[in-house]
Design a protein that fits this description.
Blueprint (H helix, E strand, L loop, with lengths): L15 E6 L2 E6 L4 E7 L2 E2 L17 E2 L5 E3 L2 E4 L2 E4 L9 E3 L9 E6 L2 E8 L9 E10 L2 E10 L5 E3 L2 E2 L2 E2 L10 E3 L2 E7 L6 E6 L10 E2 L6 E7 L7 E6 L5 E6 L5 E5 L13 E6 L5 H4 L6 E3 L4 E10 L1
Antiparallel strand pairs: 1-2, 2-3, 3-4, 5-15, 6-9, 7-8, 10-11, 11-12, 12-13, 13-27, 14-26, 16-25, 17-20, 17-22, 18-19, 18-21, 21-24, 22-23, 23-27, 24-25
């Protein structure tokens, strides 16, 4: 299928791609290569949004060439100081990368699979060119998302990626669901601007290694140090009172996960889903570097990360 772009009369979230398999249905919007809906046997697994709606609170967006924040929008890479536009003005950070509002081209659309691509052009604050390819694929094990960044420019490029789904376990709100998050460490942040500080062992409300009712607790933190199976897969479960739920899993290429209870001043957004965002690097990794997972793409090199969302 030849590449397509949003045209006149298209929904605000872009061209719409539907894929189905084994009781699952997913709708993909080309703006941000966003996961607009995901259902299993008619049950929502993520908080959806309408096709003709400006995507709220980064629901389902692909985050690249960094997830989460670059503090103050400033960092130094290969000896050069860079300054990014502050896309989170209230906290004065550069938030969630550069492709969240890009109209991805459709490279393939099959009954159970869609492939989208865009290019991050060299620009102020990120003077590198990276092609981002996103594959969504459904099977009996759920929705598999794979993101590949390929450096097509002449210089080394810092790189990170991740998704931004808000998971839904069932009826009720975040307060009513039980979370199992097998992570040994949490990245503490300042309360006002969420600037990362110390990486510490999980404690108190952040120790979620056993199934725990979320209740009124507030979380907007990155976790690491996962228990993984023999194949390197980490699993996060979110379960409603009736035993139904949703599972997120990811491999060793994602060493971090951001979890947010979706506290929001807009009532319809408030604690309606749990953000679970597998990430290849920690928040502000453009400043902390390889120690917290920052990847570097050499010219011509590529990196791939993948994660899965499935019904319980």
């Amino acid at each position: 299928m030849s590449a397509e772009h949003v045209g006149e009369g298209a929904p605000l979230s872009g061209s719409q791609l539907t894929i189905t398999a084994d009781g699952y249905t997913a709708d993909i919007a080309t703006v941000g290569a966003s996961l607009r809906t995901l259902r299993h046997e008619g049950r929502d697994l993520v908080v959806p949004f309408d096709a003709d709606e400006v995507r709220p609170v980064f629901r389902g967006a692909v985050l690249a060439p960094w997830p989460n924040r670059v503090v103050d929008g400033r960092y130094t890479f290969d000896g050069a100081e860079q300054e990014l536009a502050l896309s989170e003005p209230t906290r004065q950070h550069a938030l969630h990368g550069l492709v969240g509002w890009s109209d991805f081209a459709v490279e393939a659309h099959e009954p159970d699979r869609a492939v989208l691509t865009t290019t991050v052009p060299a620009q102020q604050g990120y003077p590198h060119r990276v092609v981002v390819t996103v594959e969504y694929r459904l099977d009996a094990q759920g929705l598999h998302t794979t993101v590949t960044g390929r450096n097509t420019g002449p210089s080394r490029a810092p790189w990170g990626t991740g998704p931004h789904p808000y998971l839904v376990a069932g009826d009720g709100s975040v307060d009513d669901w039980t979370l199992t998050l097998p992570a040994a460490e949490v990245l503490e942040v300042t309360p006002d601007r969420l600037v990362p500080t110390a990486l510490v062992p999980v404690h108190d409300e952040f120790d979620l290694r056993e199934p725990t009712l979320i209740g009124p607790r507030f979380i907007d933190h990155a976790f690491t140090g996962f228990v993984r199976d023999s194949e390197g897969t980490a699993v996060i479960d979110l379960v409603a009172g009736d035993g139904h739920g949703v599972r997120a899993s990811f491999g060793t290429e994602c060493g971090w996960v951001q979890v947010h209870t979706a506290d929001h001043v807009v009532p319809e957004y408030h604690r309606s889903g749990l953000a679970v965002e597998p990430m290849t690097c920690a928040p502000d990794a453009f400043n902390t570097g390889a120690e917290r997972g920052l990847l570097v793409l050499e010219p011509g090199a590529a990196h791939t990360a993948a994660w899965t969302i499935a019904a319980i």
